[in-house]
Design a protein that fits this description.
Layout lengths: L1 E2 L15 H10 L1 E7 L3 H9 L4 E4 L3 H4 L11 H14 L4 E5 L9 H13 L5 E3 L6 H10 L4 E6 L5 H4 L9 H17 L3 E5 L3 H10 L4 E4 L7 E4 L1 H4 L17 H18 L10
Helix pairs in contact: 2-4, 5-6, 6-8, 8-9
Bound molecules: 3-methyl-2-oxobutanoic acid.
């Protein structure tokens, strides 16, 4: 498998990425990356860098809104940030997470929420968590022309049921259920499936079993794609991080240095200098 930053963008740099490009990537054996973003300027940078998929995750609640989990996030909060991301990213595929309580009641509730995500949020697709009853929800949305990304394994909106953020699918029964859910979601028309915090051999089984791309986070290297949260990638998060996080930068230290320099230059009367003054 080779690594490709942006499916099909090399041949047509100004064409927006579609769900079909992602499937074609899997068929060609080309891995791709997805990243979260929550505002227009970050989204514009990712778009410019050719990141094919931007997820406006409900991780928004934890990394930007100060909630303890994703459970309190509302659809209006998601729409506010999804609109900003969609404005910033004309080429990347923008996926808006449906937050807890806005789709679990069934197909019509999910349809109403997903329509808002596309019409008011400007997203190209929605993501929803879970298998089982979410298969019918997925089929309903897809029939209505709404692209759906599935999400299996550790589904953070169910953290209260799991009793914490724990690796899922460890025993064979749970593993078999997860493979069956993934196949059912793909059959229902999901265009990709996030696999979060599951053993790598299970992720490999799912990746082989479904024709659509699997997007791993804490699911090992066999997935067709990988996703990280913006704040984790850049080293902006504090505290104990999950094992799967790789910090590619230490922006927290960089930002702290800049803020300290500003505060001290203001105190010393060094800033603004003549070159900053009209
Ligand atoms: O909300 C989110 O950012 C997510 C990703 C971690 C997959 O669901």
């Amino acid at each position: 498998m080779s690594v490709h930053a942006a499916p099909d963008r090399a041949s047509s740099p100004s064409r927006p990425v579609s769900i079909h490009d992602l499937r074609a990537s899997k068929e060609r054996g080309e891995r791709f990356a997805m990243l979260t973003a929550y505002d227009a300027s970050s989204a514009a940078l990712l778009d410019e860098l050719g990141v094919p998929v931007i997820l406006v995750g409900d991780s928004l609640g934890m990394v930007a809104l100060g909630y303890e989990s994703t459970v309190p996030v509302t659809l209006d909060e998601m729409l506010h940030h999804t609109r900003a991301v969609a404005r910033g990213a004309p080429h990347s595929l923008v996926v808006g997470d449906l937050p807890f309580g806005t789709y679990q009641d069934g197909p019509s509730q999910a349809f109403a929420s997903a329509v808002r995500m596309l019409k008011e949020g400007g997203a190209n697709a929605v993501k929803l968590e879970g298998g089982g009853p979410m298969v019918e929800v997925t089929a309903h949305l897809v029939r209505a022309g709404i692209p759906v990304m599935g999400h299996l394994g550790l589904t953070p909106q169910s953290v209260n049921q799991f009793g914490g953020f724990k690796v899922q699918g460890r025993d064979e029964e749970a593993a078999e259920q997860l493979v069956a859910d993934a196949i059912a979601l793909a059959d229902a028309g999901a265009f990709a499936i996030v696999l979060e915090c599951i053993p790598e051999d299970l992720a490999a089984r799912v990746t082989t079993a479904v024709p659509v791309p699997t997007i791993g986070i804490g699911a090992g290297p066999s997935c067709d794609a990988q996703v990280l949260v913006w704040h984790d990638l850049l080293g902006l998060t504090t505290g104990r991080l999950p094992r799967f996080v790789k910090q590619y930068a230490d922006l927290r230290s960089e930002v702290a240095g800049a803020v300290k320099a500003f505060v001290s230059e203001v105190a010393d009367g060094e800033y603004p200098g003549p070159e900053h003054t009209y």
